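Need tokens for this chain, all 604 residues.
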Amino acid sequence: MPKRLLMGNEAIALGALRAGVRVVTGYPGTPSTEILETVAKAHQPSVHVEWSVNEKTALEVAAGAAWAGARALVTMKQVGLNVASDPLMSLNYVGVKAGMVIAVADDPGPISSQTEQDTRRFGEFAKLVVFDPSSPEEAYLMVADAFAVSEQISRPVILRPTTRVCHSYATIEVLPDIPQASSPPIFDRDKERRVIFPALTKAQKPIIETTLHELATTLADYHGNVLRGGEHSQKKGIACGGVSFAYAQEALKGLPENYKLLKVGTVPFPKKLARKFLAGLDKVLVLEELDPVIEDALVAICGQDKLPVRMLGKRTDTTPNVGENTVDHMRKLISEFLTDGKAAQAKNLPLQPQVPHSPPPRPPVLCAGCPHRGAFFAVKQACKDKHAAFCGDIGCYTLGNAPPLDMVDTCLCMGAGISAAQGLKTADPALDAIAFVGDSTFFHTGIPGIINAVYNHHNILVCVLDNRNTAMTGSQPHPGLGKNAVGEAAPELSIPAILTGIGGLELVRVNAFDVAAGTAAVHNLLGKPGVRVIIFEGACIAVDKTPKAAANININVCTGCGACIRRFGCPAIIWQNDKAAIDLTLCTGCSACFSVCPTGAIGP
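Here are the structure tokens for all 604 residues:
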């Protein structure tokens, strides 16, 4: 079979195509984004792929496809599961006809997320099966298994890769496609009624519980669950799951082989295999990221079976309960565990390169030429000396919280800035409540907040930062860009037209790079009653590659006051010979800085 070097997300996508997926939906979010993008690039005519407006919609589209008999895959990151949880909880009771897999990428660290959530816990809470791959190779195989289990139990199943599985690379043997039923999907409304009523829920709950109990036994033989070193003479055990298993294998090289090793790759927990693992052990070290899911399950078995096994993990403060695991840290923990605290050094290991100094920290900032900088600066200028609150949102513009802009007071979740501004203004009527939302987030969950504001007579100013891009996650298309996930032409939905259609609000459009015009527009709308919306329009530098003349600073006019750096903070403006200067390697010629200098030293 051919072998390919694949990113974990690419492996998941190809694994789904191998398993006969026919509908793929999702919403972009690091670290999950490349799964759907890989399917889109494959250009298989038999597969429908789309970026949906949000995760809830994506899951509902996939549910409809699965009801009709087409295998469906939904992709999202862990916070996206919060958005999709409403239909997912009910779908587990209603069930599916064809296999349905929800790929939820967790982000320990967190590296690019608002939260550290453990989707295994969500699986337990929602009574769902969860597959937890430890490597790209395993993720490739697990997708097909997840589809098979979904069809076996007629319910959705979660695949939970973490950041290091999603974004690491491995050489993977690409297997032949799995044969699928020859009959085309068809929805038979006389037989496929799927309407959630209390009576259905009451009837389905015992079936769900029984199914999970049975799977806990049968999954003991699943290849994703592994037991090594089964001799009863061994008194120490190491239990792990997900990418921590890969780290443990690396950390164990050269250490004494006086242990049992358990790898857990599924929820429900494989109790039968765990009991084999625990037999004869005195102590167990549990290594997993985020929540103590494996640890708690092992402790429960020890309690049920009255096993005198000492469990070391997050509950005993032996291992951290936040952030990512690393090979080095796990090597130290494992070494001390296997040698009773003597911290013996592993033998025959290559020397690790020594890094003499850590690189200087680089805080995330808005790019040089970003239109959001001009928009934030315009609002800040207009609100100078005013009692104002700036409600941010999820996206590149969250970086407006950094100095010197300092323009994000709240940021909760996608679309929440608009709603939070309404609550702030209600509680503090003297406040100028200003919300920021991006163009992609406007379509995701921004529209309901604006409708709520109009309907309930709230007095807020909403700034839509339209940079023609979903920039934070890699420039994926959205409904306002005129193309879909596979690059085909699509209706270009107009944000101004949608706002005009809502009605009951005042709408202004300005060039995000014209700071003077933006400041004047905000000045004009502040203090007015009702809902006011300013659309700051300016393309992201990742979208607009049109060459423009760089900015220039007239050193004869520049007084060296530093206001351009202290107040505006564009990375392309630097300090040189006691005066401001332009870094020509960074400047995009956006012109937003022209009206920033109090002496007018900056120009084209």
